[in-house]
Amino acid sequence: MLESLIQNVLNALQWGSYYSLIALGYCLVYGVLLLINFAHGDIFMVGAFIGLGVATFFLGNLGPEFGLSGPVVLALTIPLTMILTAAVGVTLERIAYRPLRRKGAHRLYVVITALMCGLVLENGNLAILGASRRSFPQLIPTQVYDFGLFSVTNVKIAVILAAILVFIFLQFVVTKTKMGMAMRAISWDKFAIPLMGIPVDSIIVFTFILGSGFAGLAGVLFAMSYPVLEPYMGAMVGWKAFIAAVVGGIGDIRGAFAGGFLLGFVEIMVVAVFPSTMRDLISFTILLVILTWKPTGLFGMAKTTKI
């Protein structure tokens, strides 16, 4: 009984890590623009496919010539995937969101545009690469560490540590740096900030770079654990990460981090007790109860607007 409980906790930590990494991207964009970037889950999907392409390129073209091993390819794949995925996020901001923002479009239209961008990414992937599922190469051998009561793999440890380190890094950036201060200032009063000489567009681009880059990291880590990729893999994961961010308190980095792990724990524990077909029903019911009890989320605070 104890062994099963500990194993489920480790599985929940791994699953919650993916939700947290994606939810942090939602949190960053919402915290600066008050925009729910519904295309973020599909950016996670794009990151997984970019990682597949980069890893395949190194293994197929440069690996035999330069003798690149799997760990070396992984060390090259992760930063390149983050950079290229960040470029996708910045492109979406430049093409889809910035023109609407400069024209003063209602926030609802921006949200609809975000949904459209997600559909474009999904169906663009489908049109270019086809509907067949892709297999992510095994870049590092899976090692199982047995501690008696439970066992854990090296990939699982890496995923959990990555989520924790990303959270610490973002918390530092937002609370301790000038760029983070500017991000918080824009979320507070976006009309007064340009009068103070702060380049709003640059801050927004930086926000999309962070959020999309870490979505790419989540895509690679997810592909290493569950190496079957398909164009719609980011839709449900993205929606669940958004719900996790709302439950934690959207706009708060601590809330996004905690909400992702909370959703991971709820899903894994539900599957451990009930049939897997009831996972989403029971999990979302529990989250609905939490929001009924605390509508602003676990770490969120009610905001008042002065007129």
UniProtKB/TrEMBL annotation:
<feature type="transmembrane region" description="Helical">
    <location>
        <begin position="281"/>
        <end position="302"/>
    </location>
</feature>
<dbReference type="Pfam" id="PF02653">
    <property type="entry name" value="BPD_transp_2"/>
</dbReference>
<keyword id="KW-0812">Transmembrane</keyword>
<dbReference type="GO" id="GO:0005304">
    <property type="term" value="F:L-valine transmembrane transporter activity"/>
</dbReference>
<dbReference type="InterPro" id="IPR052157">
    <property type="entry name" value="BCAA_transport_permease"/>
</dbReference>
<dbReference type="GO" id="GO:0015190">
    <property type="term" value="F:L-leucine transmembrane transporter activity"/>
</dbReference>
<feature type="transmembrane region" description="Helical">
    <location>
        <begin position="18"/>
        <end position="36"/>
    </location>
</feature>
<feature type="transmembrane region" description="Helical">
    <location>
        <begin position="149"/>
        <end position="174"/>
    </location>
</feature>
<keyword id="KW-0813">Transport</keyword>
<comment type="similarity">
    <text>Belongs to the binding-protein-dependent transport system permease family. LivHM subfamily.</text>
</comment>
<dbReference type="GO" id="GO:0005886">
    <property type="term" value="C:plasma membrane"/>
</dbReference>
<feature type="transmembrane region" description="Helical">
    <location>
        <begin position="43"/>
        <end position="60"/>
    </location>
</feature>
<keyword id="KW-0029">Amino-acid transport</keyword>
<feature type="transmembrane region" description="Helical">
    <location>
        <begin position="108"/>
        <end position="129"/>
    </location>
</feature>
<keyword id="KW-0472">Membrane</keyword>
<dbReference type="GO" id="GO:0015192">
    <property type="term" value="F:L-phenylalanine transmembrane transporter activity"/>
</dbReference>
<dbReference type="GO" id="GO:0015808">
    <property type="term" value="P:L-alanine transport"/>
</dbReference>
<keyword id="KW-1133">Transmembrane helix</keyword>
<dbReference type="GO" id="GO:0015188">
    <property type="term" value="F:L-isoleucine transmembrane transporter activity"/>
</dbReference>
<dbReference type="GO" id="GO:0042941">
    <property type="term" value="P:D-alanine transmembrane transport"/>
</dbReference>
<keyword id="KW-0997">Cell inner membrane</keyword>
<dbReference type="GO" id="GO:1903806">
    <property type="term" value="P:L-isoleucine import across plasma membrane"/>
</dbReference>
<feature type="transmembrane region" description="Helical">
    <location>
        <begin position="232"/>
        <end position="250"/>
    </location>
</feature>
<dbReference type="InterPro" id="IPR001851">
    <property type="entry name" value="ABC_transp_permease"/>
</dbReference>
<protein>
    <submittedName>
        <fullName>ABC-type transporter, integral membrane subunit</fullName>
    </submittedName>
</protein>
<feature type="transmembrane region" description="Helical">
    <location>
        <begin position="257"/>
        <end position="275"/>
    </location>
</feature>
<keyword id="KW-1003">Cell membrane</keyword>
<feature type="transmembrane region" description="Helical">
    <location>
        <begin position="72"/>
        <end position="96"/>
    </location>
</feature>
